[in-house]
Amino acid sequence: MVKLAEWRGKEIFRRYGIALPRGRVVRSPEEALSLTESGDIPLPCVVKAQVLAGGRGKGGAVRFASSPAEAAEAARGILGMEFHGETVKELLLEEKLPIARELYLSLTLDRSARLPLLIASAHGGVEIESVAESDLLRLPIHPFAGLSSYEKRRVLRTLGLSGSTAKSVDGMLDRLWRAFQHEDAELIEVNPLAVVGEGVVALDAKVIIEDDATFRHPEYADIRDDRTPLEEVAREKGIAFVQLDGDIGVIANGAGLTMATLDVLQQFGGRPGVFLDLGGTDDPAKVTEAFLLMARAKPSAVFLNIFGGVTRCDTVARGLAAAIAQVPPAERFPLVARIRGNNEEEGIAILREAGITSLHELQESAQAAVAASKGARP
Ligand code: GDP
Ligand code: MN
Q1: Is any ligand 1 atom within 6 A of the Cβ of residue 204?
Q2: What is the CATH number of the domain that holds 209?
Q3: Which of 71, 148, 194, 326 has the greatest CB tally within 10 Å of its CB?
Q4: Active site residue 289
């Protein structure tokens, strides 16, 4: 999977004639200052961190500036910041456009239907997972025929567009489809697609190139790396750690229980963001290390689901208690625990000492973790 930074995605968009704000990649506050002073980037402007994680808007990694000094200051504030484990090294400096509406469009692969899938929504600018299913149009696309006129009309109706704005989206749909096919993408997402004046502009670009096609794309050889920076650290330490798009951290042991835990959270409306498979470890220090790594991903809540076997419950609890003591209070997150099995009583007692209650049932604890991720106290 080759996940492209926004500016690289937009470079592709530009080649296909998709309307974009005027922008430049910058790597220092000085560059931001001079590009806005010279008028190369008109003011007001937007300063955007070039990281792979989404939610930059909410996370303070997209800022606005109305003078060159402000642009430089925003750049200084964002460069070097750690965003979901990734250090910001590049920014995209763009003109700020007056947005009338924010829409959503994406093309992806529906692997079970074995077809490309177009998703459209009139509710753009927010994470698509938070949009009600009834507000989404999901349209399977014939891979050879492409987008037909009536399919495009359905999209325009969903987006509530008519007149010249509709015409502008109609053209963009053709271009996005062409880009999706010719670039061997497995995802092209435009969120938001902004209505500006009579037309539409792609304000954001998320592009993922299909793994099996990367041999056709030597241009991505230098960025063909699946691992996030935190995953890289984990790999060096021999910790099984995977970052997903959600926000709940999961600590479990064994691949089966870990996968089942992700499913249960999802079932109760939670979005797993990072998971750690403790596997069979008998070293509390290893657990501490793994937990601190997870803390760096800034989960909204952590669900610990352990079935003690080779990895005994007290080992996990000891490692965890030591780790919690090392996380500064301001960076703590709610933790819901369920530990069962070998040395369960001892583990529960150690957790209780550390101020963590261990729940018994899987469903009950998963629901508590989801609630905690949404702000309820566990
Ligand atoms: P994300 O949060 O990581 O998906 O980053 P986006 O690129 O989607 O930007 C987040 C939000 O910033 C968008 O939903 C817009 O509301 C806002 N934004 C970005 N560019 C512009 C712009 O040119 N003009 C205005 N008014 N808002 C913008
Ligand atoms: Mn976006």
Answers
A1: yes
A2: 3.30.470.20
A3: 71
A4: no
